[in-house]
Amino acid sequence: MRNATAVALAVALGAAAASLLVPRRVRPQVAARLMTMFAVFSALAAIWTLLLVAAASLAQLHGIAERLSWCNDVVSRHSGSFAPTGGLAMLGLLAIAGSAWRVRRQHRGLRAIDGDREIAVIGSEVPTAFALPGRPGQIVVSTAMLEALNTDERRVLFAHERAHLRCHHHRYVRLTQLAAATFPVLDPLNARVLLATERWADEEAVRHVGSRDVVARAIARAAIAQADAPPANLGIASTGVLERVESLLQDEPRRVRLTELGFASGALAAGTALALSVVLVEPSIAAIFHLC
Amino acid sequence: MTERREMGALEHEVLSELWALGEPATPAVVLDALGSGLAYTTVMTILTRLWEKGLATRTRAGRAYAYAPAFTEAELTARRMRATLATASDQKAALSRFVGSLSAREARTLRALLEGSERPRTG
Hints:
- The complex is a heterodimer.
- By secondary structure, chain A is mostly helical.
- Helix content of chain A is 68%, strand content 4%.
- Chain A has helices at residues 2-21, 28-60, 64-68, 84-107, 143-148, 151-166, 169-182, 187-209, 212-228, 241-249, 257-281, 283-288, and strands at residues 119-122, 129-132, 138-142.
- In chain A, strands 1-3-2 form a 3-stranded mixed beta sheet.
- In chain A, strand 2 (129-132) and strand 3 form a beta hairpin.
- The N and C termini of chain B lie far apart (58 Å).
- The radius of gyration of chain B is 20 Å and the shape is elongated.
- Chain B folds into 2 domains: 2-69, Orthogonal Bundle (Arc Repressor Mutant, subunit A); 74-118, no CATH class.
- In chain B, helix 1 crosses helix 3 and helix 2 crosses helix 3.
- Chain B contains 5 helices and 3 strands.
- Strand 2 of chain A pairs antiparallel with strand 3 of chain B, so a sheet runs across the interface.
């Protein structure tokens, strides 16, 4: 059990570190997947760590360990008292449940406009465009946004939003949000995964219209139109628009095979270690490996 | 199943193209704009389907029909729109906006960039 807890904690911290270390030169479609995978493993490992710590404390109470036939290793001696770490772990688990529930709730209330229209163009002076995930999902664009762009740029807009829906980008963003709600260390990942999915959709749009310049211009034009629309729409924090445009003005991102492979094996190792940590606790399985 | 899904994707693409073109277009024009090696009859079928679904309107243009994308019913939208936009402006709602907001510095940079790319280069 102590081994299991140590492994789980190592996965939680290691995967979190790895997720934040994925370099920017990794192609966005790979980076989004890697970061999401690390985030999910890290969050699951964090939950598992807390569960193990809580269980170890509980087991010291009324000999619960024997009844559940956990490894002898689980608790060395029944002290009959409840370790304070167990209480902290339970509080942590409650906090996780709370924040995960809040994230879930935020995702409700996003419903398609005007029935099952695939593209809803709304008469509005506020330039805006976004994709609503779902089956089959919907692209919402305001008339002001369409007017701000020329034909080619509108083509970019639709190709970009279609890519979001087709590649299920909301899944990466949501999984990372859930993971970060579970394990706050992962919070900086939210913005990175969001940006990676935007870059991913930008590259898909390039494939569709066949010009990096046109895509860069469409994004710049749309962002300016949005900033110029009343009320003043200038934000304080960067949302990565400039970075997207700059990336488009450079060459297509190349495959960095070794780096990608390295991080992918890291993710595989994290997943395996997490599974091993679960196995370590279950005596019937652990016995096979003579771990008990 | 796959064919049906591909059909859905194509409808989506044709509908976006109608919006991108910004004026009523005949199947030939749409086919030309898509430029993806589709058959004329496929494009015609898709446009008819969009029209049947109420996603596009059509008017006679010589021997063919010219198709235009249909607007969302404004009345129904106003209320829902406000609710959706309220959620949409919330970054955490995991909504894929085409572009996020800009800082003042970013806005300056992008403006300069757009002007630079449009002015014919001299010297």
